[in-house]
């Protein structure tokens, strides 16, 4: 397991986070909280190795000021504006979560610092947050999905995926999955920003 790397830049208030998976997701909130609590810097950037949905969920769970995801990235001007709002409300610390593929914590901290003239620290949790022991829910989900997948293989069914729909294993044609690009967690991202106020 790799150790998190960290550093200091100059920025407003930001943290960049990236993380992965359901059992690993429960580790993220604590790691982000520790990264922010350990710093007296107004800006914390925590980068984690997760996709859009997990990053948005982590942002909501951790109280991030904003979440940067590849599907709907924030410009430096938008980040600067969000940090200014946070400071105007009197908050001393804030952070942004940045999903895998949405940016580099070190580069973002440096860019935000140069725009705001304030110090920012960054940490890359990355793959240190991947994995973790599976929860009972993880094990049950794996068993249910694997069982259904084996049934489909025995029936010589192909070009499908097995997932969950309303809590039960469901079979979906691959052609249908590739066409779906909607991210239901985008509304969670808006809620994250509202709750950060």
How is this structure best described in words?
This protein is of the alpha/beta class. The protein folds into two domains: 5-132 and 183-195, 3-Layer(aba) Sandwich (Rossmann fold), CATH 3.40.50.460; 136-179, no CATH class. It is built from seven helices and seven strands. The strands form two sheets. The chain has a five-stranded mixed sheet with strand order 1-5-2-4-3, sandwiched between helices. The protein has a two-stranded antiparallel sheet with strand order 6-7. Helix 1 (22-37) packs across helix 2 (52-62) and helix 2 (52-62) runs parallel beside helix 7. The longest helix is centred in the last third of the chain and has 19 residues, at 136-154. The two termini are 35 Å apart. Mean pLDDT is 74; it is low at 1-25.
In short:
The chain is α/β, with parallel strands linked by helices and 197 residues long.
- Record the strand order, biggest sheet: 1-5-2-4-3
Category from helices, strands and their pairing: alpha/beta
Average pLDDT figure: 74
Unreliable stretches (pLDDT < 50, length at least 5) are 1-25
Number of helical stretches of at least 4 residues: 7
Please write the string of helix (H) and strand (E) elements.
Answer: EHEHEHEHEHEEHH
Extended strand count: 7
CATH superfamily name of the largest domain?
A: Phosphofructokinase domain
By CATH reckoning, the class of the largest domain would read: Alpha Beta
Shape: elongated
Main beta sheet strand tally, sense and closure: 5 strands, mixed
CATH architecture of the largest domain: 3-Layer(aba) Sandwich
Provide the domain count. Answer: 2
Gyration radius from CA atoms, angstroms: 19 Å
Beta-strand percentage range: 15-25%
Q: How far apart are the first and last residues' alpha carbons, in Å?
A: 35 Å
**Considering DSSP H and I runs of 4 or more, what fraction of the residues is helical?**
40-55%
CATH topology of the largest domain: Rossmann fold
